[in-house]
Write a structure and sequence with these properties.
By secondary structure, this protein is of the alpha+beta class. The chain is built from 2 helices and 6 strands, in the order βαββαβββ. It starts with a strand and ends with a strand.
């Protein structure tokens, strides 16, 4: 399969993100960027904006703690391109979570005023 999708975010994008990653996503999160491609490998990049309280629930529901995150892992999210801006102007704490069968999950977050930006990358190799 050779496909790529950028553009308007839809509820099917959220379903695909949940299905691939197995994450419980914040219910009030606004999906502001979604990129999917599948050639030989699969890549999903998603950026959401949510509240600090929703981030804490997200961490708890997914059995993550703040100690799992480090700015040293920021490079795993790739370079800025269009609406994808993980390198930004402020540090991004990132958890690198290897999965089975050559799959990788990276989750990052940073404060953005009264909101929190949440970045998720899912990839297979």
């Amino acid at each position: 399969m050779n496909s790529q999708k950028d553009g308007p975010r839809t509820s099917s994008d959220l379903r695909q993100l949940r299905q691939r990653t197995g994450l419980a996503l914040p219910a009030d999160a606004q999906l502001v960027y979604f990129h999917y491609e599948s050639q030989r490998d699969e890549l999903i990049q998603a950026k959401m904006v949510t509240t600090p309280a929703a981030l804490e629930r997200f961490l708890s529901e997914n059995h993550l703690s703040r100690q799992d995150f480090s700015p040293a892992n920021q490079g795993f999210l790739g370079v800025d391109s269009g609406g994808w801006d993980p390198q930004g102007n402020s540090p991004l704490a990132v958890a690198a979570l290897p999965r089975e069968n050559g799959r990788f999950l990276y989750i990052g977050f940073r404060n953005a005023g009264p909101k929190v930006e949440l970045y998720i990358v899912w990839m297979t190799t």
